[in-house]
Amino acid sequence: MSIEALKQQIPDFAKDVRLNLSSMAGDETLTDQQKYGLFVACGIASRNPQLRDALIGEAAPKLSPAALAAAKSAAAIMGMNNVYYRFVHLAANKDYQSMPAKLRMNVIGNPGVDKVDFELWSIAISAMNGCGMCIDAHEETLRKAGVGSDKIQTAVRFAAIIASAAIALEAADAGAEALAA
């Protein structure tokens, strides 16, 4: 399924979501690898199979096998890190901040693609998952690499659009299930 076909599944009550999905493919703020890697990573992080499959279907032909694997790695590693570091940040007991995480995350140091691309995917997923510590860490890395606010904002905007599309699809399914009952 393509993004165009996916948009047909989004009901009229979420017209803005359809319009925002349309705007992503034409955005020129990011390189193609950054953009389509975001489709993959955020599609997986959305945890919506229909959306994930449509975004991967759209992106996979435009990414190298290494970039596709790296985008999937970003989703997987941020799934782990965002839970752990959000806990460390939010826990009343601050002892956790000085304890070693003891989590393997070698892919962050060697993602198989340009580090900036991987960091953009990671900050977008961290925003989706609400991990302030991870957002701060990835933004700092991106800033040190010379990435401007426009690219960071675009990555997070894509994450917001993809998250809203997942919710719109869930809402559409919920309405259909209620009518069938």
Produce a short descriptive summary.
By secondary structure, this protein is mainly alpha-helical. The protein has nine helices and no strands. One of its GO terms (biological process) is response to oxidative stress.
Question: Would you write up a description of this structure?
Answer:
One of its GO terms (biological process) is response to oxidative stress. The protein is mainly alpha-helical and 181 residues long. The protein has a single domain (3-180), classed as AhpD-like, CATH 1.20.1290. The protein contains 9 helices and no strands. α2 runs antiparallel to α9 and α7 (115-129) crosses α9. The longest helix is centred in the last third of the chain and has 32 residues, at 149-180. 39% of the residues are buried.
